[in-house]
Write a structure and sequence with these properties.
Radius of gyration: 21 Å
Mean pLDDT: 97
Oligomer: single chain
CATH superfamily of the largest domain: Type I PLP-dependent aspartate aminotransferase-like (Major domain)
Distance between the termini: 34 Å
Helix content: 25-40%
CATH topology of the largest domain: Aspartate Aminotransferase, domain 2
Order of helices and strands: EHHEHEHEEEEEEEHHHEEHEEH
CATH class of the largest domain: Alpha Beta
Bound molecules: pyridoxal-5'-phosphate
Length: 360
């Protein structure tokens, strides 16, 4: 068996240890005589798996008791609608910073339910930077402010948390959850699809301040009310049981690795190897301003489409897969989530050096 280095933006690599544990427990979880996939979500065994996952996530992210943790379905994309339906309930307006496609989708979807205002955008420079926004730029009457904290497609990340005063700040952290510590208390809602840095696709994690729950618009479908899920321990209906189980294994792995401070240290080390190479290469270059670079998603180009295509094809043959950039931007992108080992990045850079020499 030869596992490749998978630089996919999502679904993406999972820690090998997590996969091995899942394999060991595939036919029988503990002494239950069954796989986690086959268990009733109402069983004592499954409830224990669920509770342990939530407790470990709370511990790792330092989530205070006045926040609910929900394990939902529908991906981060469903949150683009759930947020306005549940939060645009006082003045029916919300503020948005658009830093890429996902941020824009959240903005567009909210505009269907209320007054969505564009506060700032980095579209003028192909989303290659994060706009600097201050407290006075936001509407004090907005029901919430929405940002996308790490922009998976363009490879930018906020290096600051916007100050929004009393207006709840909502952040999409799909592609940076668990990559480094984040101060949960600065946010009203944090949400993430699991398939980037946590688990297989299927579960969406929502961390929401409890006072924001319970005021959904009348038109909100029952399944799209946060209240429905918070009142039922995320088991109003069948949850994505297996994805939650794998998420739980990932949380345990992170704890064992040394928590989010340690993840940050490792992620900074990995990203530096790649960015240092890009900064010194004559052929490859990064596309994002240095101060807003993501630790997780690293886009780069040669400036020549044919050479880009050749690089993607040859890298694939050498065991580095999914390096092609997002279909909307072209070029290359290396997603280096928590599960990407440092050797994966070192070997990729070696390969890039060789490619550069051979194609100079
Ligand atoms: C992948 C991604 C999404 C979309 O997630 P789905 O779970 O496919 O809906 C949204 N936001 C960000 C930042 C992403 O990276």
């Amino acid at each position: 068996m030869a596992r490749v280095y998978n630089f996919s933006a999502g679904p993406s690599m999972l820690p090998e240890e997590v996969l091995k544990t899942a394999a060991d427990e595939m036919l029988e979880y503990g002494t239950s005589g069954q796989s986690v996939m086959e268990m009733s979500h109402r069983s004592k065994e499954y409830q224990a798996i669920f509770d342990e996952a939530e407790a470990n996530l709370r511990e790792i992210m330092n989530i205070p008791d006045d926040y609910a943790v929900l394990f939902l379905q529908g991906g981060a994309s469903t949150q683009f609608a759930m947020l306005p339906l549940n939060l645009m309930n006082k003045n029916k307006k919300a503020d948005f910073i658009v830093t890429g496609q996902w941020a824009n989708k959240a903005y567009q979807e909210a505009a269907r339910y209320g007054e969505a205002r564009l506060v700032a955008s980095s579209k003028d420079k192909t989303f290659s930077y994060i706009p600097k926004v201050a407290a006075e730029d936001f509407d004090k009457d907005a029901d919430y402010v929405h940002i996308c904290f790490n922009n998976t497609i363009y490879g930018t990340k906020y290096n600051y948390i916007p100050e929004t005063g009393d207006v709840p700040l909502v952040a999409d952290i799909s592609s940076c959850i668990l990559s480094e510590p984040i101060d949960v208390t600065k946010f009203g809602v944090l949400y993430a699809g699991a398939q980037k840095n946590v688990a297989p696709a299927g579960v969406t994690i929502v961390i929401i301040r409890k006072d924001l729950i319970g005021n959904a618009m009348d038109i909100t479908p029952t399944m799209l009310k946060y209240e429905t899920h918070s009142e039922n321990g995320s088991m109003f209906n069948t949850p994505p049981c297996y994805s939650i189980y794998i998420a739980g294994l990932t949380f345990k792995w992170i704890k064992k690795m040394g928590g989010l401070e340690k993840m940050k240290e490792l992620n900074e080390k990995k990203a530096k190897i790649l960015y240092d190479f890009l900064d010194n290469s004559k052929m490859f270059k990064g596309t994002v301003v240095a101060e807003d670079r993501s630790l997780m998603n690293v886009p780069f180009i040669t400036g020549n489409d044919e050479l880009d295509a050749k690089f993607v094809a040859e890298s694939k043959k050498a065991g580095f897969v999914n390096l092609k950039g997002h279909r909307s931007v072209g070029g290359m992108r290396a997603s280096i989530y928590n599960a990407m080992p440092i050797e994966g990045v070192e070997k990729l850079v070696e390969f890039m050096k060789k490619f550069e020499e051979e194609n100079a």
